[in-house]
Specification:
- The protein is an alpha/beta fold.
- The chain folds into four domains: about 110 residues, Conserved hypothetical protein from pyrococcus furiosus pfu- 392566-001, ParB domain (Alpha-Beta Complex), CATH 3.90.1530; about 40 residues, no CATH class; about 160 residues, no CATH class; about 50 residues.
- The protein is elongated.
- A hairpin with a 5-residue loop joins strand 13 and strand 14.
- Helix 14 runs antiparallel to helix 15.
- A six-stranded mixed β-sheet has the order 10-14-13-9-15-16. It has a five-stranded mixed β-sheet with strand order 1-5-3-4-2.
């Protein structure tokens, strides 16, 4: 015997003038949640009412209909419509689409209100992300989407970024096998293959925290706060074709530079350019290094220079800063501590005065011609130049003889290194980095058969060994008088 299909009765729908509607006391929603009534009113004004109100006739004491209708389900929509009427953007008699429940229905008004709110399934965040992508693909801009859904353009960018994660990971998120915070972390690096590699590496690990995901996705990149990036500048790096990684969901300190090799090349080129500019001062040699080794100046003589005097403009600027500093101190004298903004200003004045007081040194031209400088970066990414170091081999001849010992009896003296003359004064700055000549100082690869001079440091070491060997040989010789041996 065939089962008869159950008949579903639908409540009739009709348009009811707004001024005939009243909010029902049976509406279960009492606490504000979700978007505000003001935002909902703006949305209704823009796109119209997407869902009808659920209403029931208001009955008089004798059971007759009064012509009014109460709203047990749809109260927030009614409040939004009321706001539009109050703003005179909607007429009081505007017909409102409604679903009219029979006044004698056995379903209570509270039942309807509760069902409408509880049986509504919340949109999964991933569906929202993909919906934003669909709107973008159909020509809407970030500002347009943001205005339509009462969010900021930054939120739109975040949602679009989440939707751009590897599809395989989005499916894992959809199955609730990944948290939203973890998904956010994957947006740091747009490389889908790398995203999946990282997930495969950590999915069975005890540490699946978002910070660990971010660390693994950026481990081959360089922080924008790195001193190399500060020296070159992110803009110059991008102009050279470098790409950046950014985290839209938390502070990223400016992001990450994705091409360390390009960054290092730009650093090297800029350091070389700085060294070439310093070379015009007349130094014999300049050593360029991102990190100077410990004891880099060991065995070198440091020139003593005189601080350069301040110019008239610099002196006036320093006097002005000092006057302001002393005025602030006098103004707050006797207080236990300075106000925060005053303390900050005093710090700024101190830094400015210290910069003016840190005078460059002036050296003797003859000393400059035999001395050199080190060019490097400090920990903040600022250029650091240490001038005025003289190598033993570059000392004047009378001093060099004292350091390296008397010449041998056979008349052979110390061999001069390339770029030196009899006075030990250079004929052109040699710029090196890690022992290799840079720029125009790079030697010719072609071998013309001529003997090439040894590196200066090697000459110095060989000379010292040669002197010691001669002394030992003289000391052991029975034919040499004792008075000569003592020498």
């Amino acid at each position: 015997m065939a089962k008869s299909a159950q008949k579903v009765t639908l409540s009739p729908s009709r348009d009811i003038p707004f001024d005939k509607l009243v909010l029902s006391q049976s509406n279960v929603r009492r606490i504000k949640a979700g978007i505000s009534v003001e935002e909902l009113a703006e949305d209704i004004a823009r796109r119209g009412l997407l869902q009808s109100l659920s209403v029931r006739p208001v009955l008089a004491d004798d059971g007759s209909e009064t012509g009014k209708f109460e709203i047990p389900a749809g109260g927030r929509r009614f409040q939004a419509l009321s706001l539009l009427v109050k703003q005179k953007r909607l007429a009081k008699t505007t017909p409102i689409p409604c679903i009219v429940r029979d006044a004698k229905s056995t379903i209570l008004a509270e039942d309807d209100s509760l069902a409408e709110n509880m049986q509504r399934a919340a949109l999964h965040p991933l569906d929202q992300f993909r919906a934003f992508v669909a709107l973008r693909e159909k020509g809407q801009g970030d500002e347009e989407i943001a205005a339509a859904f009462f969010v900021t353009p930054q939120v739109v960018k975040q949602r679009l970024k989440l939707a751009a994660v590897a599809p395989a990971l989005l499916e894992i998120y959809a199955e609730d096998e990944m948290t939203l915070e973890q998904l956010m972390a994957f947006t740091v690096n747009p490389d889908h293959e790398r995203q999946i590699q990282v997930w495969d590496a950590i999915k069975s690990s005890w540490n699946k925290e978002p910070y660990q995901i971010r660390r693994m996705l950026t481990e081959t990149s360089v922080r924008a706060s790195d001193r190399r990036a500060a020296f070159v500048g992110v803009e110059a790096y991008e102009d050279a074709g470098g790409t950046m990684l950014h985290d839209l969901f938390q502070g990223d300190d400016g992001g990450w530079l994705e091409d360390p090799a390009l960054l290092d090349r730009l650093v090297s080129e800029k350091l070389q350019a700085e060294a070439e500019a310093i070379a015009t001062e007349g130094w014999k040699w300049i050593e360029v290094s991102l990190d100077l080794p410990y004891g880099y100046s060991h065995g070198l003589r440091r020139l003593s220079g005189d601080p350069a005097p301040m110019t008239d403009d610099e002196g006036a600027a320093h006097a002005k800063l000092l006057a302001e500093y002393r005025a602030l101190e006098e103004q707050y004298e006797g207080q236990d501590e300075f106000p925060e903004e005053i303390d900050a200003r005093l710090g700024e004045l101190e830094v400015a005065m210290e910069k003016l007081e840190a005078r460059p040194l002036i050296f003797d031209d003859e000393e400059i011609a035999r001395a050199g400088a080190f060019v490097t970066l400090d920990r903040y990414g600022e250029l650091a130049v240490y001038r005025g170091f003289v190598r033993p081999v570059d000392e004047p001849r009378e001093d060099a003889d004292v350091h390296s010992g008397e010449q041998a009896a056979d008349g052979q003296g110390v061999e001069l290194s390339a770029g030196s003359n009899v006075d030990g004064i250079g004929h052109g700055t040699v710029i090196t980095s890690a022992g290799q000549a840079l720029g125009d100082n790079v030697p010719d690869d072609e071998d013309d058969g001529a003997l090439k001079p040894l590196p200066e440091r090697l000459v110095m070491e060989l000379t010292a060994h040669r002197t010691l060997a001669l002394r030992e040989a003289v000391g052991r010789s029975p034919d040499v008088p004792a008075s000569r041996k003592a020498v």
